[in-house]
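seq as requested:
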Amino acid sequence: MAAYIFRRLLLVVPTLFGIILINFAVVQFAPGGPVEQMLAELRGEGQTLGRLTGEGPGEVRAPGGGGAGGGEGPVGTYRGARGLDPAIVAEIERIFGFDKPAHVRFGEMMWGYLTFDFGRSLFRDRPVVDLIVEKMPVSISLGLWSTLIIYLVSIPLGIRKAVRDGTRFDVWTSGVVLVGYAIPGFLFAILLVVFFAGGSFVQWFPLRGLASSGAETWPFWQRALDYAWHMALPTLALVIGGFAGLTMLTKNAFLDEIGKQYVVTARAKGNSETRILYGHVFRNAMLLIIAGFPAAFISILFTGALLVEIVFSLDGLGLLGFEAAIRRDYPIMFGTLYIFTLMGLVLQIVGDVMYTVVDPRIDFEARK
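struct tokens:
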């Protein structure tokens, strides 16, 4: 198993490189890059040149390791550059790092990524690592608790539905989870705000942040309760639509195993239903569920929480990535892509290890 894990870890490097390279190449043809946006601001909104010279709060600095590039060519190809001094356009290119060829920028970017140096945000003038670390607690909180609750509820519920397939319990629980699945998470979040966060009825829960003002001076137990109070509605908004898929997957996986010959044989030997269900069926049926865990966690952690973060005014990675995409803040875009991809690949390896934990008969070393 150790040799298999080592081989998988070695594959992480070329996989990461390929994903970043493909996205970098695609971005080169995307219009509306940071240089074009800056030129449009200077030409259309009358911005001063203080941002170029470092004067005042609007200073823009070149990101560490050079810009990531995208959508801009030589000075004469910028539509927003018409009427501007070419020297100003050249200075903007230099500040954002676009005075270098694309392959040079890509090489500098990947060299920095080897030491987790993602440069500086083009428009926030802060290191990308600092921004990610600052936003990470919100996304980790949402992703971790949502995934944990979904699995803790869906797996027992799916097993129960499989055992009582076709009964009234199976029918009404299927209706409940499918209704929850049909309601978009952001719409349910808005309903929660309207009913429970001071919208039109009561204000039992806070509307923004992970902690109350001054909570850092409170005792640990009080801070923990305050944290749970702030997380209740956003987490509920995320998990309400996540029960259906995993519950039905669990039910169908168990139904498929229950109908196999080894279960009939176990019953003929006099084993109890509990022994058959958890001693024989469980480890086989859980393989499909474990296989989907990394994708489910990554999905909730980095994509599913965007609109929920907006509704509840939670400044997390989802909102950071969305704003970076809108403004073409390439260091943030590629830095978050690098981290998300790395975490996804590592979680896939963890999923393989969990296979052997659930079913020790699986031996990855025996595969040719």
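The two ends are 14 Å apart (CA to CA).
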